[in-house]
Amino acid sequence: MKHVPCALTIAGTDPSGGAGIQADLKTFQELKCYGMAVITSAVAQNTTGVKDVHHLPLGFLEKQLQSISEDMPVHALKTGMVAQKDMMNVIADWIPKIDAYYVMDPVMIAQSGDSLSEEESREVLRNQLLPLTSLVTPNIPEAEEITGKRIKTEKDMKEAAEAIVKNFGAGAALVKGGHKKGTAVDYLFDGNEIYTFESERIQTKNTHGTGCTYSAAITAYLARGYSLPEAVKQAKHFVTEAIRHSFDLGHGSGPTNHFAAREEVSNKWM
Ligand SMILES: Nc1ncnc2c1ncn2[C@@H]1O[C@H](COP(=O)(O)OP(=O)(O)OP(=O)(O)O)[C@@H](O)[C@H]1O
Ligand SMILES: Cc1ncc(COP(=O)(O)O)c(N)n1
């Protein structure tokens, strides 16, 4: 049988299907990866916000991870919502046991403003998880939280990407400009150079789960064997099209459209 690219997400859930594990699996599927999922927290949420969170017991998180590593290949994995420091420690102990690219989406606060991670977990994220990453994908507030420095300009974004690699030991850092005005520009520092990924800003309120979809698409392209800059370039195209064709569903910030995104990018990579 042909080599099957295998991608894993370790994240929280979104029953309304726009973010978290659900968005990740849709992305893996559209980008022709075999998708696997380990759940950290069950989240009652929809396009309008988070209603409740139920963290899975630590021992159960460990068993889910073990179920993967004792049986399945993983070529690339991502983490999304990992709310508690003890969960981070479990994941940090497990990742070195497998040989896979690791993309961290350092999910802290949902677009709705609801917190998705405990304050005290930030130090473990910085000290234990960041040094294990192939890539971390903070938005501007998350990059500020990691570096402890305000980001106001595009120069600040590039400096934050460099600092996250040089001072915090990430393999590479992609600082995303979804939260700034003007074009949707992201900066990648891979330890050697800065790459720029830019698209027009699409006028829509339907951007629920864009960060999840973007990091899952990068993970999928890495699992498929793309180099890091090429994986980010293709994933940026995918997320831009997912936003352009986003669904006007729900009463809040609607979800992005994974299958339209795949149709738009497909003739380039299939
Ligand atoms: N309105 C938009 N038009 C085009 N691209 C966008 C828009 N909003 C965000 N993006 C892009 O989507 C990607 C995700 O960025 P963003 O900064 O929104 O991440 P995030 O805040 O982690 O996402 P989330 O909203 O899921 O928390 C980035 O490439 C960003 O530039
Ligand atoms: C389980 C989970 N993970 C991540 C997000 C962030 O997505 P957004 O910022 O678009 O709400 C979310 N809402 N839920």
From TrEMBL:
<dbReference type="Pfam" id="PF08543">
    <property type="entry name" value="Phos_pyr_kin"/>
</dbReference>
<comment type="pathway">
    <text>Cofactor biosynthesis; thiamine diphosphate biosynthesis; 4-amino-2-methyl-5-diphosphomethylpyrimidine from 5-amino-1-(5-phospho-D-ribosyl)imidazole: step 2/3.</text>
</comment>
<keyword id="KW-0784">Thiamine biosynthesis</keyword>
<dbReference type="GO" id="GO:0008972">
    <property type="term" value="F:phosphomethylpyrimidine kinase activity"/>
</dbReference>
<dbReference type="GO" id="GO:0009228">
    <property type="term" value="P:thiamine biosynthetic process"/>
</dbReference>
<keyword id="KW-0808">Transferase</keyword>
<keyword id="KW-0418">Kinase</keyword>
<comment type="similarity">
    <text>Belongs to the ThiD family.</text>
</comment>
<protein>
    <recommendedName>
        <fullName>Hydroxymethylpyrimidine/phosphomethylpyrimidine kinase</fullName>
        <ecNumber>2.7.1.49</ecNumber>
        <ecNumber>2.7.4.7</ecNumber>
    </recommendedName>
</protein>
<dbReference type="GO" id="GO:0005829">
    <property type="term" value="C:cytosol"/>
</dbReference>
<keyword id="KW-0067">ATP-binding</keyword>
<keyword id="KW-0547">Nucleotide-binding</keyword>
<dbReference type="InterPro" id="IPR004399">
    <property type="entry name" value="HMP/HMP-P_kinase_dom"/>
</dbReference>
<dbReference type="InterPro" id="IPR013749">
    <property type="entry name" value="PM/HMP-P_kinase-1"/>
</dbReference>
<dbReference type="GO" id="GO:0005524">
    <property type="term" value="F:ATP binding"/>
</dbReference>
<dbReference type="GO" id="GO:0008902">
    <property type="term" value="F:hydroxymethylpyrimidine kinase activity"/>
</dbReference>
<feature type="domain" description="Pyridoxamine kinase/Phosphomethylpyrimidine kinase">
    <location>
        <begin position="14"/>
        <end position="257"/>
    </location>
</feature>
<dbReference type="InterPro" id="IPR029056">
    <property type="entry name" value="Ribokinase-like"/>
</dbReference>
<comment type="pathway">
    <text>Cofactor biosynthesis; thiamine diphosphate biosynthesis; 4-amino-2-methyl-5-diphosphomethylpyrimidine from 5-amino-1-(5-phospho-D-ribosyl)imidazole: step 3/3.</text>
</comment>
